[in-house]
Design brief:
alpha+beta, 3-stranded antiparallel beta sheet, 8% strand
Length: 800
């Protein structure tokens, strides 16, 4: 949360409001500007910043002259503050934000044009490199404090944004069982850099307050996060640990409050975070006491009364706390979530939150964390409402924002776990199937795969309590899915209790099938029998999987010969589904160069990418989250030869069966395919752009058909990156544009293409015909339009 006060830093702006150095860079690197209605210097800066972001994303070096602007152009650096503040505000609040990429982008922009490579993967960070980045800031701030105070002021803001984005990363990681382990070392790095900056630089009171506010936030944001185990602890020791963490939360909040929350005038958002941390911590304590100890164990412990007293003193939004017993405390705590959701709501029953989610269409995904904790800790929500929440989520669209998607999946997990805890195997199979279908639909190459997999494990546990044969088989299958994706590490550690219960349940089922009477079987023996039964199931399921793969392959071949609507894009989708879901359990994103025209790459970071050359221009591209590198490599080693040979066979089969619709020289869709495609359209008007390549006949005579065919194919590849094409007769290509699209921008981009043919640089001369029409008249109109274009002096004609 930032307040940015702009200064009149005019060193780099001329009288007309233009930054010449940035303008020169835009020209030099051919950087496109998305112009506003009225020219603004922000347009130039935004274009340059996007270009820097693209270079980092493509893992390319930042040119030295751009680095110079990142380091020394004060106006550009001020704009960066403005731009990154907007990004920061969207990380948690915007459900369309790709969080991991956005956080990485902010860190990259703040890295002085260097590559610090902080993210090893979605779950793993290079902490040494992060420390090095902060040390770089500490060094530069110390130098700038003496040399250039304006630059110092701006760089200090960059420094605090960097700290805040790491703080935001900690917030996002706080709910995940794996990533929450990263919070402690990240907090230690932030604490260290703040201490060093305060020690080495003579900061004024305003900046000291800003840094002290951050230190306070680290305490009241995250002191409720560390997992406190109950193993080998009496209740008194457990309560003491929670009391200590509660005091840290209160101390941190007071520290931030005394700084004016780092010059933020609105205290309420910080109070709500403090309230949420306090509420979650104390509800967790009550939960652990209830399910791990008898009430006699802790009923007379004075430290519990001290916690209640501290709570009454610190929680200010309520005038009176009617809290005398632990049950009173729980009720009071749950009511806090209503205030966190909306302080204007007078409703006191915490069930209001669930009703809001189910009935209010304007319920924002940013509030899912409140819904999550309410469902987790409440024991009063009706089963019908819990089922309704599951139904609503199972039919919803995936959130691009991983934090919101994680919360959605976690809520589903919590609800199913509640049914398990009561041994109520009453959820309808149709509902569970919807949840499984949601996972299969949305898991592809997701960084959240481990969270999707956790749902497999929970559903496996759920079904393992059933006596029904089909349910038991489903339990085995979903356990197999979990292990295939996540392996055994978490099963042996964080999920060991779940794993043990599943194995014992399956052991009991197997033993019961033997109809043994009056024989007592120990849990250890049930565990052994269950493990053996599931190992045998795994062997059989691997065989079943191979059979399914071969059947799927056969189905695609059949589709190639029988489906008249099958085109390059649909075949690419079939191949992606085949490889990703059938072979890699959804771990991979797959596309085929030569088939794929749309959505052929992942717009996110943290992925490994491999390319497999098939034949000619066809390449198989596979991307997978680095988190699952070991799992991917195991599956890839076992299946790589099979994948390559069968995809080659599929494409050859498709090409031979589809000659009537493909141009033999370029591989483009031909005129027959164009006629077929437009007949599938509705009656709405669209635009057809035809390009007549005037130089092609001359080039054929000069260099020969073989060389020019190769050149023409290369030219087509470049144009196809701009828009999908059709090949018409002779040197004519074309593309369809919807009425709402900017066809002129596409044409300009194509006209600017230059190619080297032997030693001759060719900027192709194009006759351009643009025709408006619908499926009923476009074929007649396009012939006339092209004739008019050829007859015109400009070689250009628009026919509406």
């Amino acid at each position: 949360m930032f307040i940015h006060q702009e200064k009149d830093i005019l060193n780099f702006i001329d009288e007309e409001g233009e930054d010449h150095k940035v303008s020169q860079l835009l020209t030099k690197y051919n950087i496109k500007i998305s112009n506003s209605l009225i020219y603004s210097l922000h347009d130039d800066y935004s274009a340059l910043l996007n270009y820097i972001d693209e270079l980092y994303f493509d893992e390319k070096d930042i040119p030295s002259d751009i680095v110079e602007e990142l380091l020394n152009n004060l106006n550009f650096k001020s704009f960066i503050i403005y731009a990154l503040e907007k990004k920061m505000n969207s990380i948690i609040n915007d459900n369309a934000t790709i969080i991991f990429k956005e956080i990485s982008t902010i860190i990259d922009i703040l890295s002085f044009g260097k590559k610090f490579s902080i993210f090893n993967s979605y779950n793993s960070y290079n902490l040494d490199n992060l420390s090095s980045l902060f040390k770089e800031y500490e060094k530069r701030l110390k130098i700038l404090y003496e040399a250039n105070r304006d630059d110092f002021e701006i760089t200090f803001k960059h420094y605090t944004i960097l700290i805040e984005v790491i703080n935001e990363l900690c917030s996002i990681n706080s709910l995940d069982i794996l990533r929450k382990k990263s919070i402690k070392p990240l907090v230690e790095i932030i604490t260290e850099t703040i201490s060093m900056s305060k020690f080495n630089i003579e900061l004024d009171s305003e900046k000291i307050n800003i840094l002290n506010n951050i230190l306070g936030k680290l305490l009241f944001f995250y002191s409720h996060v560390p997992y406190i185990d109950t193993a080998n602890k009496d209740s008194s020791y457990l309560i003491e640990e929670f009391h200590f963490n509660f005091e840290k939360i209160c101390y941190g909040y007071d520290l931030s409050k005394n700084t004016g929350f780092g010059l933020n005038v609105d205290e309420k958002p910080f109070y709500k975070i403090f309230l949420n941390s306090t509420t979650t911590l104390l509800l967790t304590l009550l939960y652990k006491l209830k399910y791990n100890y008898s009430s006699e164990d802790f009923s007379n412990i004075e430290e519990l009364n001290q916690i209640i007293t501290l709570y009454k003193n610190e929680i200010k939004h309520k005038k009176n706390h009617n809290v005398e017993t632990l049950e009173d405390l729980k009720k009071d705590l749950l009511e806090n979530y209503i205030y966190i959701y909306d302080e204007n709501v007078k409703e006191k029953d915490h069930l209001f939150i669930v009703d809001e989610f189910l009935n209010n269409e304007n319920f924002k995904s940013v509030h899912l964390s409140i819904l999550h904790t309410t469902i987790l800790f409440s024991t009063q929500i009706q089963e019908e409402k819990l089922i309704s929440v599951l139904e609503k989520f199972s039919l919803s669209q995936k959130y691009n924002n991983d934090y919101h998607e994680f919360l959605k999946l976690s809520i589903c997990d919590v609800i199913i776990t509640k049914f398990i805890a009561q041994r109520k195997i009453t959820l309808k199979d149709e509902l569970i199937d919807k949840i499984i279908n949601y996972i299969h639909k949305n898991r592809t190459a997701s960084h959240q795969m481990s969270t999707y997999a956790k749902l497999y494990l929970t559903i496996s546990l759920y079904y393992s309590f059933s006596d029904n044969y089909n349910c038991i088989e489903k339990s085995k299958l979903y356990y197999f899915y979990y292990v295939s994706v996540n392996g055994y590490e978490l099963l042996d550690n964080e999920y060991s209790k779940i794993n043990r219960t599943i194995l014992i349940n399956h052991g009991n089922q197997h033993i019961n099938e033997l109809n043994l009477e009056n024989v007592l079987i120990s849990d250890a023996k049930c565990l052994e029998v269950g493990e053996n039964a599931l190992n045998k199931y795994f062997v059989q399921e691997e065989m079943n999987k191979k059979n399914r793969i071969n059947q799927k392959l056969s189905n695609i071949v059949t589709q190639i010969f029988t489906d008249k609507n099958l085109d390059n894009e649909l075949l690419n989708k079939e191949i992606e589904n085949f490889i990703s879901n059938e072979i890699f359990f959804g771990l991979t994103f797959v596309s085929v160069d030569g088939l794929c025209k749309q959505q052929c790459t992942l717009v996110d970071i943290g992925y490994e990418r491999i390319s497999i050359t098939l034949f000619d221009e066809y390449k198989l591209r596979i991307a997978y989250s680095k988190v699952f590198k070991q799992v991917f490599e195991r599956l890839y080693i076992d299946n790589s030869d099979y994948i390559k040979q069968n995809i080659i066979n599929l494409i050859i089969c498709y090409l031979r069966s589809n000659l009537v619709y493909n141009d033999s020289v370029t591989g483009l869709r031909n005129h027959e395919k164009f006629k077929t495609d437009i007949l599938k359209r509705d009656d709405k008007e669209f635009i057809l752009v035809q390009l007549y390549y005037e130089d092609l006949f001359r080039l054929n005579k000069t260099y020969g058909y073989e060389k020019i065919n190769h050149y023409f194919r290369e030219y087509i590849k470049i144009v196809e990156k701009i828009t999908p094409l059709y090949r018409f007769n002779g040197p004519k290509i074309g593309f369809i544009v919807e009425n709402s699209k900017n066809y002129k921008a596409l044409i300009e981009e194509i006209k600017n293409i230059e190619m080297l043919v032997m030693d001759e640089v060719i900027n192709p001369r194009l006759t351009i015909a643009i025709t408006w029409g619908n499926k009923n008249n476009i074929l007649e109109k396009v012939t006339l339009c092209l004739n008019f274009a050829e007859d015109s002096k400009e070689g250009y004609y628009e026919f509406k």
